[in-house]
């Protein structure tokens, strides 16, 4: 492989062009001084020193200092380039984490200034993580219409519990419309208040919806549970208001039915309907499960 080709490949790896040139040139000459190295490259002597310092920081070059001798430089083993790549990956991951922490707010600001809706489609468990983070960032109350199919994804359970704790700590309250499946009076009277949840129950046979609807701030998040786990977040105040008004209508319409379900449940005359394997009862409030 020609020298220029090696330099180009190292640039693709992530080195700067002058770093790649110094590295390849130095590698072919074992140990040498910065002055001699400058004669073999297109760089000036001051720039050679600067680039050598950069490569030393990257652990790709080492400085050899001996008493009464001119300082020389040598490359470290080329396998150190793998460590360089690993460090780059780590930096990218840190930057991505930092971006995710502020991205939703930047999108919100952009959409507000440009008066346009924002739509995000999120896949799988990572999408749920992003939704939960956004809920905490917005730090506003939640209106939830639950899907009984959420139990198809038991791997969500730990995430839900963690999110509930975070929401309670932040003082985020939830109003939830939930199809009755296996709720207990203990859950309704003790667990719900601890989780800052108020709910209305509805017969699951008439409200067996395949997707959850969650309204918060100026956003509507819809998570489908009937097949692949997928969440769509729509950011638009008019759309959010429309869903919220729809929620309010259903909420008020269910007052009588909710009271009847609770009365029969307390009297022990209500048999929960059959459903897939359920999660433990103390997990409503984060957007999934009841």
Describe this structure in words.
By secondary structure, the protein is an alpha+beta fold. It folds into 2 domains: 3-78, Winged helix-like DNA-binding domain superfamily/Winged helix DNA-binding domain (Arc Repressor Mutant, subunit A, Orthogonal Bundle), CATH 1.10.10.10; 117-267, Endonuclease, Chain A (2-Layer Sandwich). Helices cover 50% and strands 18% of the residues. The termini are far apart.
Give the C-alpha Rg.
30 Å
According to CATH, the fold-level topology of the largest domain is Endonuclease, Chain A
Mean pLDDT: 87
Overall 3D shape:
elongated
Using the coordinates above, name the CATH class of the largest domain: Alpha Beta
Helix content, binned percent: 40-55%
Question: In angstroms, what separates the terminal alpha carbons?
Answer: 63 Å
How big a fraction of the residues is strand?
A: 15-25%
Low-confidence stretches: 276-283
């Amino acid at each position: 492989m020609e020298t220029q080709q090696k330099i180009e490949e190292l640039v693709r790896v992530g080195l700067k062009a002058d770093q790649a040139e110094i590295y390849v040139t130095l590698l072919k000459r074992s140990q040498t001084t910065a002055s001699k190295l400058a004669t073999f490259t297109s760089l000036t002597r001051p720039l050679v020193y600067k680039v050598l310092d950069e490569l030393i920081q990257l652990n790709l070059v080492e400085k050899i200092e001996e008493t009464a001798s001119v300082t020389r430089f040598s490359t470290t083993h080329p396998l150190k380039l793998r460590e360089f790549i690993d460090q780059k990956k780590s930096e990218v991951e840190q930057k991505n984490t930092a971006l995710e922490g502020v991205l939703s707010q930047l999108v919100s600001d952009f959409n507000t200034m440009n008066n346009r809706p924002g739509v995000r489609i999120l896949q799988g468990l990572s999408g749920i993580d992003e939704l939960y983070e956004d809920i905490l960032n917005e730090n506003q109350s939640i209106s939830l219409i639950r899907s009984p199919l959420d139990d198809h994804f038991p791997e969500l359970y730990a995430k839900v519990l963690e999110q509930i704790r975070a929401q309670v700590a932040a003082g985020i309250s939830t109003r939830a419309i939930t199809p009755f499946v296996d709720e207990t009076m203990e859950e309704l009277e003790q667990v719900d208040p601890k989780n800052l949840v108020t709910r209305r129950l509805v017969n699951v046979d008439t409200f067996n919806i395949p997707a959850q609807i969650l309204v918060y701030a100026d956003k509507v998040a819809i998570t489908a549970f009937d097949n692949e786990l997928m969440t769509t977040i729509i950011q638009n105040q008019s759309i959010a208001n429309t869903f919220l008004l729809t929620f309010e209508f259903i909420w008020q319409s269910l007052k009588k039915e909710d009271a009847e379900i609770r009365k029969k449940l307390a009297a022990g005359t209500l048999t929960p309907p059959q459903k897939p394997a359920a999660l433990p009862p103390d997990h409503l409030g984060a957007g999934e499960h009841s």
